[in-house]
Amino acid sequence: MTETGSAGVVRVTGQGAGRQATRSLHRAREARLAGTRSEVAPRAEIDASWDRVVRSGIDPEQSPESELLRADEIEHRRHSTALGELMPLLRSGLASIADAAQQILVVTDTEGRVLWRQGNTGVLRRAHAICLEEGADWAEKATGTNAIGTALAARVPVQVHSAEHFIRALHGWTCAAAPVRDPRDGRLIGIVDISGPASTFHPATLALVDSVARLAEGEIRTRHLAEIERLRAVAAPILCRIGGRALAVDVHGRLAAVTGMAPVDRLPLPKALGPGPVWLPSLGMCRVEPLPGGWLVQVDDGGTEGTPRRVVLDLSRPRALAVHVTGPLGSRTQRLSPRHAELLYALAVHRQGRSASELAGDIFGDGTRTVTVRAEVSRLRRQLAEVLAHRPYRFGDGVEVEVIHPEDRADLLPHSRAPVVAQARWAAPTA
Length: 431
Hints:
The structure is a single chain. It is built from twelve helices and 19 strands. The longest helix is centred in the middle third of the chain and has 37 residues, at 205-241. The N and C termini lie far apart (91 Å). Strand 15 and strand 16 form a beta hairpin. It has 431 residues and is α+β, with helices and mostly antiparallel strands. The strands form five sheets. It has a five-stranded antiparallel sheet, sandwiched between helices. Strands 10-9-13-12-11 form a five-stranded antiparallel sheet, covered by helices on one side. It has a four-stranded mixed sheet with strand order 16-15-14-19, with helices on one face. The protein is 36% helix and 23% strand.
């Protein structure tokens, strides 16, 4: 099948094409590999994929084999994706059809790694020869143009047939794949694919695969709404008894119920969230309590009273460096890396604040290493945003800071070469 595109270029497809069109597709591929101009070209999505693959250095004569993931890693990935819960739906929608059509169902994660496959027994055996098996890598960067990898790269459903595959060893195959997204945030969660021998090609396969992918997304949406309703039923009577601002959110921060404030679609939550006081950038100091399927977040509305007032930087034991933060909503302890201990010590010494260049001099003795300093302080502020300010970097106004030194000042951060630490080791203790 051919069609005339822009600039008189003839677009040729291998899908259901006769021998003449197939030969034209081969000529277009050979011209692309040789870097010469041709009057024929593949479909636009295949053309773009060939360009990406050529730039990546894939050898068209290479084997599609890839290093397989270990069985325990495959299981870990299966349990880490929402696709695992959707497999019954995908199997009922596609696996039996694939079996009858002499094809197989393949489901991958967002890296193009095959996590599940099912279908015709004979085709499963043939798929072994091209490494289309669990744990294999079918991203474009590994296996060239193919439906799984190209759907991942383009984020759209795509069908790849015969010589449209970049690697010659795949020319005897046809495949159709569609991305599956989380409807709550649009994030890609995997790829659904049907593959089989080239003789099993059917133009309706892509529409079928795409329809089942959309059904899977609808199932995610339905399950999410049911989870939110269950959380809302638990949270509603609690929120009725709370004065001030409070929210009930699921484990991903998506709103179930709110009182005393405008609703938000999603509340950004720290990765390591636990019960107790926590600083949330969008709300300030909060108290978090677990709920079935989520969290109750109470905003502290005490104004400046809600700001932690005391920080104790404990450097007395080199193997147990820590910072203790105390405020009206409670106390918490944060373990520190040696680098973060150096930075906090420099800020404790210079309460008026330090620029990135000054901190670089304090830590490295080199004021030009500002990029490293900014990156480290950024990581530190994600953990201690409630007590650290910037422009300049400093402890916040009204925060009381105490440093606990080792008994012998010479033992202060003994492995540190930071000038600010070295200077303190030999300074006479003040009365």
